[in-house]
Amino acid sequence: MLSSDSPITVAGEPEIVLQDCVTPLDFDAIFGREAPIQIDLGCGDGSFLASLASDNSAANFLGIERLLGRVRTACRKIERARLVNARVLRFEISYAVQYLVPANSVTTFHLMFPDPWPKRRHAPRRVISESLLVSLHRALVPDGKVRIATDDSDYFKQITRLVSHSPLFEADNGTVAATAVSKFERRFTQRGVAIHRLVLRKLSPVT
Q1: Domains and CATH numbers, the chain
Q2: Is 115 known to be catalytic?
């Protein structure tokens, strides 16, 4: 039960409805318990989010998605599976990570198959950028991770170059891949499309 002065309200679970767009999320209030937080950025129809939450009952999972239709589908999946450790927030990813996710609060971010915007003139719309890396770094706990998957080789090369010049993260090649599978991954796998993966580990800033 949320208190009257809570910064958020939950509209018939599992969708989170914000009372304002500046107050950081209170994860303990949202989930009704204290547990490690993982966030699925661009959670789409919620298939990956629901699978993660089902496989990891000891953690709490938040999906962030901008499109209303996808949010509603994700919520239905969570409700049908009776998952008490999954919620969905309808919001733009970059803003939510920068302003709504508290600092040092997230153990893992998942970025599964973000829109590659393949046309050169649309490339600036890609969500993974230097500014997003800064926001992810701020939100992660020490040694927290960012898991990225894409089928677009050009986008993957751009991400790899970006990370190689960043003092905020290092590639963590020893991390075991998540067993949860998204709708896009199933589709690409069936078609024999190569999937490129990258796991980043948060580095402590040099003082």
Answers
A1: 8-202 (3.40.50.150)
A2: yes
